[in-house]
Write a structure and sequence with these properties.
The complex is a heterotrimer of chains A (about 650), B (about 525) and C (about 120). By secondary structure, chain A is mainly alpha-helical. Chain A is about 70% helix and about 5% strand. By secondary structure, chain B is an all-alpha fold. The chains are: A mainly alpha (about 650), B mainly alpha (about 525), C mainly alpha (about 120). At the A-B interface, strand 3, helix 5, helix 6, helix 23 and helix 25 of A face helix 7, helix 9, helix 12, helix 14 and helix 17 of B.
């Protein structure tokens, strides 16, 4: 990597990347530490049973501290000099094209490093308690460390191929963790579903990389972003759409959203870390990181916006109908990431807010999931909210932290979600009134279904069976929840005041674009809060004023549809799986029957000779030979065609 | 450079140093035949095993030490080209053959002995067969046969004229036809497979030979250099060239198992003794692709705008049909067979690039593919129902819980086939796709990328089955691999990981070597 | 003339010959089928019924025939060498000796493993 290589030009100036020195030279260590943990735990075998989980937790902790030191150092630098690159070695030299193992530490990746190591560290601590009785927890912690290492690789990589490696790594780790309790068949299906849907997204990623190789001859951020202005608009659009496809797979956005709900089969800490706070936001990272590409293509940005807004509504509607606490939260994650994708699609006006919401969401959603895990821990792994009720007395700490996360997600000032979501809605409104209306509507529904979750779980009369004895969770679980709760309270204001987050990300995504709003900001905020309160009020009247039946009522057509995730599985089955199966069957049939039948048929045509023909042909070799002959005609035919 | 009687007869030259590795292998095979003739039955197998392994090792050492420093020359009067690709492929074939030989040696996994029938001439299930099994006799002709085949492969990738090319093809194939029929278990299936392979193989050889005749008719020369020269001078009848190119391609497509010349692959891979399947799937494919690259890049190098569209069609068909048919397979050997068809499609993507990077990426892919393939088939030999291999996929359910190591290593190989990063398969796919894109074959890459996702499905299906399903009640027994199999699997696994994590040295090697001489 | 015409002509000629032979045979010959006539020609051995489950398929005849062909071909290869052997000089002599030696190895194998014993 050249010293002071120009990474890209944007309207506000250019991102200058300098060689990593001093503490920034230790960037590789961020990844190496958790990777070491994974290697030791997974290869060490039973010998590491005793100290493995602690070692894994400690390594992530050290990585966090290192990240923190780097962050403080970075804050000390002037804004323009906060990007550092480090190239370790050339991984795959391919002629004049080569792929380096290189890292880029800049404000954007720094934010992710802190989020991943901090939330990751807390989830490790939480898991010490949550998984205390699992005989296989060493393996669990090994996978967790593998995940953290892959995620850090994803956000620190300085070229798209390496991003892809991290991308696959987090997918693999997520796959292993979803299927961790692999004794149950439906969990296995969930793991497979997640893997296959992610692979569909990965096609987008790999094709985008190939397109970069042909267009720019490199996949390094610096080369791609400096070359993108010269590329034809069609290529840029294609690149943008392919990256979006990749993002929809990893971030569970329409149309590749179906796996996230099923992924809740994994242990709850996993849901908190991977399927709420970090991995599923990788799509947002990818789009924001590729901002020079999206800046140049209105078409690609429009697609991003549409995906975001549709998913945020889809997720919100699904969330209203789920009785499984984790699935309700998963739907909410889908919806919140929809907000982030929407913001990212708005271009320079929204990049910073996408990351802003991503960070606050990382805290409050992880907190909510850990809270849900704590509830399940105390309720003998019951997930049906209709069997909860009135738990606030039995689990006070869980209740308070969960409630804080709840206030944050529905956007009550001054909790974190208020600031970040408010900014996104404003930006959407400024872009297009209908986008803004959809986003506000989404906020109202969010308030409704999250209130529903809280009311059904912690308020009302108790509905659990007599042999269940809800109790508060151990310290190792409550402390991380409290820390995340504190984050859910303060993080929003801390990043918002003085436009800190916008200024921090400016070297990477360019300055925020000013937008004109027809009405005063304060009025918008008031409208959003009003809609939110309406949502809460409806939930109050439905789930707190009236007793909640233990058996779910049949509900309207819409409710039933939402309960079934709007028939996403049926849709996938009829649109993708069935035709695939038919095609397969046809090919098998063709292989076995048609060629044979053709032989038999033509033999019969020769007339009477069929019997004699059969006598020479004792096996199916005849059909094989015939297919070869057909192939020969094909080969020579194509050759001749080319010559014509 | 062919000797012509008319203009003064020149005595042929014969560069022994360049040809030494091949001569050693053939020599070893001939000594093996003598051993068969003169050694008493008792120590015969030991002698053959030692002879086989030593021959391969010595040939490999000589290849590196003597041939490699001198490469870049035509040998044996221009009939053999010892250039970078030839030596690279010869080395690869020797290594893969050595790994397969380790599987041939294994006697620990089947209670009755190695994977081969005690006597191919006995009738399956007859009394004389039982006698021989009880006496623990083994069919030691396997060793010289395999050595002859290896020698043929080495000559195949280096042959520089049509005659040598054809002779090498036959030397490589004939022993394979026999080896396929020598399975100890399910002998009827094995014999059927051998017959099918032989018949279809002869059919394809006929195509190839006929095509060679056309090429000769076009150019008036059997040497690849001569054909190339006549292409640039433009003499000769065009249709001859066209038909010749097509027919030679058909012969080679058959050997690599490309669609629609793939129908033999599943039957033969399933029927053959599994170590032989591993040998065929890995080494034969390397040899056939090596020869394909040479004839199309050297002899028809300036003609690529004519043959590339035909390769496009076959490549797409191969990837699509191979991947889709693999999905419905219920037998692991058949699944791996269709997977190897699909893999051939990915390798063809690199060949289609028709450039130096196409050559080097194909070379890398073949190495990566060879390791993973031998490893995967080696593991198939370990899971057994009573005495036979339990190849039905349902029998593999829950293996992850019963034998985590076997399941984990097989998962590694499958993930490599699927092209997951940090395995050799990812680098291989990346390289061939990159070469194809630069060679102007972007649509091929799109098809390849989409179907690598489809392919991921059936690889993952096996992994899911192993880890997430309950084992059947009468779960198959797991044979404890002997030292030989363990060594082979370990080398393959290490190679798969190493080529995925630090592929640099091998990529460099392939790029350095990627220059044909004419 | 289009260069493809001679090739087509050759193909037609080959096809025509085959068609003519079959047609002429079936038209001109008497049609008195018997079991023996309908059997496939298999070098003097009844192809059906196959000796299943009991005796072996007698291959002695094939072995001898095959060996004969092998050494026949050896002579064929010796012939061109004999024509040019003075030009090939010592190199030709050594190569030819190696060739014969190789065949000798095969011969030794057949002999030692009992391939030459009729009973």
């Amino acid at each position: 990597m050249n010293a002071a290589a120009v990474v890209h030009w944007s309207e506000g100036g250019q991102q200058v990347v300098s060689d990593a020195t001093g503490v920034f030279g230790l960037t590789w260590l961020l990844i190496a530490l958790p990777l070491l943990g994974a290697v030791v735990l997974l290869l060490g075998g039973r010998r590491t049973n005793s100290f493995g989980p602690l070692l894994a937790t400690a390594l992530v902790g050290v990585a966090f501290l290192l990240g923190l030191v780097q962050f403080l150092q970075m804050v000390g630098e002037p804004a323009a000099d906060r990007s550092f690159a480090q190239s370790l070695f050339t991984w795959a030299p391919i002629g004049d094209f080569s792929v380096d193992v290189g890292f880029q530490l800049d404000p954007l990746s720094m934010a992710f490093v802190l989020l991943v190591t901090f939330v990751g560290g807390l989830v490790h601590v939480y898991s010490l308690g949550y998984m205390a009785n699992d005989p296989d927890r060493r393996r669990f912690f090994g996978y967790l460390n593998l995940f953290v290492a892959s995620m850090l690789l994803l956000v620190l990589a300085s070229n798209y191929v390496l991003v892809y490696v991290g991308w696959e790594g987090v997918g693999l780790a997520s796959y292993l963790l979803i299927g961790f309790w692999n004794a149950k068949a439906e969990y296995a299906t969930a793991a497979k579903k997640a893997f296959v849907m992610n692979r569909v997204g990965d096609i987008g990623m790999s094709l985008a990389i190939m397109l970069m190789v042909t267009t720019f001859g490199t996949t390094a951020f610096s080369g791609v972003f400096s070359g993108v202005e010269q590329a034809s608009s069609g290529v840029v659009l294609a690149m943008g759409l392919l990256l979006l496809l990749a993002a929809t797979g990893k971030s569970a956005q329409l149309p590749l959203q179906a796996w996230l709900g099923d992924a809740m089969a994994g242990p709850t800490p996993v849901s908190a870390l991977i399927h709420a706070a970090t991995m599923v936001t990788a799509g947002v990272y990818l789009i924001v990181r590729s901002n020079p590409i999206f800046d140049l293509s209105d078409g690609a940005r429009l697609a991003v916006v549409l995906v975001g807004v549709l998913t945020l509504l889809f997720g919100a509607f699904v969330g209203t109908a789920k009785d499984d606490i984790k699935k309700a939260l998963a739907a909410s994650t889908m919806s919140q990431i929809g907000y982030m994708i929407l913001a990212a699609g708005l271009g320079p006006a929204g990049y910073a807010f996408a990351i802003f919401h991503l960070l606050t969401h990382g805290f409050f959603k992880a907190g909510l999931f850990l809270g849900a895990g704590s509830v399940m821990h105390g309720m003998d792994d019951e997930v049906n909210m209709r069997r909860y009720g009135g738990l606030r007395k039995a689990m006070p700490i869980t209740f308070i932290t969960f409630f804080v996360g709840y206030l944050a997600i529905i956007g009550i000032p001054p909790f974190a979600g208020f600031f970040s979501k408010d900014k996104i809605i404003e930006a959407a409104l400024a872009d297009n009134v209908w986008l803004g209306v959809a986003a506000i509507l989404g906020a109202g529904i969010t308030a409704f279904y999250m209130s529903r979750v809280v009311f059904m779980t912690f308020f009302g009369e108790q509905r659990w069976a007599d042999d269940v004895h809800p109790h508060e969770s151990p310290r190792s679980m409550t402390v991380p929840m409290v820390l995340l709760g504190i984050g859910s309270v303060v993080l929003g204001y801390v990043l918002y005041s003085g436009s800190r987050i916008v200024l921090w990300l400016e070297p990477v995504v360019g300055p925020e674009e000013e937008h004109e709003l027809g009405i005063p900001v304060l009025a918008i905020t008031a409208i959003i809060i009003a809609v939110t309160l309406v949502g809460v009020a409806i939930a109050y009247s439905m789930y707190l004023r009236k007793p909640v039946p233990v058996q779910a009522p049949l509900g309207t057509v819409v409710t039933r549809a939402a309960r079934q995730d709007f028939y996403q599985d049926a849709f996938n089955e009829s649109v993708f799986m069935r035709p695939g199966q038919y095609l397969t069957r046809f090919l098998v049939f063709f292989d076995n029957r048609v060629i044979d039948g053709f032989v038999n048929g033509s033999a019969a045509l020769i007339g009477g000779g069929s019997a004699r023909l059969r006598r020479w042909q004792t096996g199916f070799v005849r059909s094989y030979a015939l297919s070869m002959l057909a192939g020969a005609v094909l080969v020579v035919g194509v050759l001749v065609l080319v010559r014509l | 450079m062919m000797p012509h009687l008319a203009d003064g007869f020149t005595s042929p030259t014969f560069e022994y140093q360049l040809l030494a590795p091949m001569l050693i292998v053939f020599g070893g095979a001939i000594v093996g035949v003598l051993v068969e003739a003169f050694t008493p039955r008792g120590p015969r197998r030991t002698v053959q095993v030692a002879l086989g392994l030593v021959t391969l090792v010595v040939a490999f050492v000589v290849l590196l030490a003597v041939t490699r420093p001198k490469l870049g020359d035509l040998a044996a009067s221009g009939t053999v080209a010892i250039d970078g690709p030839a030596v690279f492929f010869q080395g690869t074939i020797l290594v893969l053959a050595l790994l397969s030989f380790l599987l041939f040696v294994e006697r620990g996994v089947d209670s009755a002995g190695d994977a081969f029938t005690p006597s191919g001439a006995t009738i399956p299930g007859s009394a004389s067969e039982r006698e021989l099994v009880a006496a623990r006799v083994s069919q030691t002709e396997v060793w010289p046969l395999a050595l002859f085949s290896v020698g043929g492969m080495m000559l195949f990738v280096a042959s520089n004229d049509l005659l040598t090319f054809f002779v090498a093809l036959e030397v490589m194939s004939l022993p394979l036809y026999l080896l396929v029929g020598l399975a100890r278990r399910r002998r009827l299936l094995s014999q059927e497979a051998a017959l099918k392979y032989f018949l279809l193989g002869s059919f394809s050889s006929a195509f190839l030979l006929f095509g060679s005749a056309f090429l000769f008719g076009y150019s008036g020369s059997i040497s690849f250099t001569g054909i190339y020269d006549s292409l640039s001078s433009g003499v000769g009848l065009d249709p001859l060239l066209l038909i010749g190119t097509g027919m030679v391609a058909i012969g080679l497509f058959f050997k690599v198992g490309a669609v629609p010349f793939h129908s033999w692959v599943p039957d033969v891979y399933q029927g053959a003794p599994t170590p032989v399947t591993a040998f065929m799937a890995a080494a034969t494919k390397v040899a056939a692709f090596g020869a394909m690259l040479r004839i199309f890049y050297v002899a028809l190098g300036d003609y690529d705008w004519n043959w590339r569209p035909m390769f496009w069609v076959v490549t797409i068909l191969t990837i699509v049909v191979g991947s889709i048919l693999a999905i419905t397979q219920t037998d692991i050997k058949r699944m791996l067979a269709y997977s190897s068809v699909a893999q051939a499609g990915f390798i063809l993507t690199g060949v289609t690039a028709a450039s130096d990077s196409g050559l080097s990426s194909t070379m890398f892919y073949l190495v990566a593919y060879g390791f993973a393939t031998i490893g995967a088939f080696a593991l198939v030999t370990l899971v057994r129902d009573g005495t036979s291999e339990a190849t039905h996929l349902s029998r593999w359910a829950g293996l992850g819980r019963r034998s985590p190591i076997i399941a984990a290593v097989l998962s590694l190989f499958l993930l490599s086939f699927a092209g997951i990063p940090l395995t050799s398969g990812f680098i291989g796919k990346f390289l061939v796709f990159e070469a194809a894109v630069n060679g102007g074959a972007t649509p091929l890459v799109i098809v390849g990328a989409i179907f690598s996702a489809v392919a991921a499905f059936f690889y993952v299906r096996v992994i899911v089955l192993m880890y997430f399903s309950d084992p059947p009640d009468d779960a198959p027994s797991l044979a404890l691999p002997g030292a030989a199999t363990t060594l082979a699997v370990a080398v393959c696994a290490a190679g798969t990981v190493a080529l995925g994590v630090v592929p640099g040295p091998v990529i460099d090697l392939a790029q350095e070597a990627a220059a044909f001489i004419r | 003339m289009n260069p493809i015409v001679p090739i087509l002509f050759l193909g037609l000629l080959a096809f025509g010959f085959a068609a003519f032979s079959i047609l002429a045979g079936s038209l001109s010959g008497p049609k008195r089928y018997s079991r023996v006539k309908l059997d496939a020609y298999e070098c003097g051995i009844e192809p059906t019924p196959q000796p299943i489950g009991g005796g072996r398929f007698p291959v002695k005849y094939y072995l001898t025939a095959m060996l004969f062909i092998l050494f026949d071909i050896e002579i064929v290869f010796l012939y061109p060498w004999a024509v040019a052997f003075d030009q090939l000089a010592i190199f030709g002599l050594i190569e030819m000796l190696l060739f014969i030696l190789t065949l000798g190895v095969a011969y030794a194998y057949v002999w030692r493993r009992g391939g030459l014993e009729w009973d």
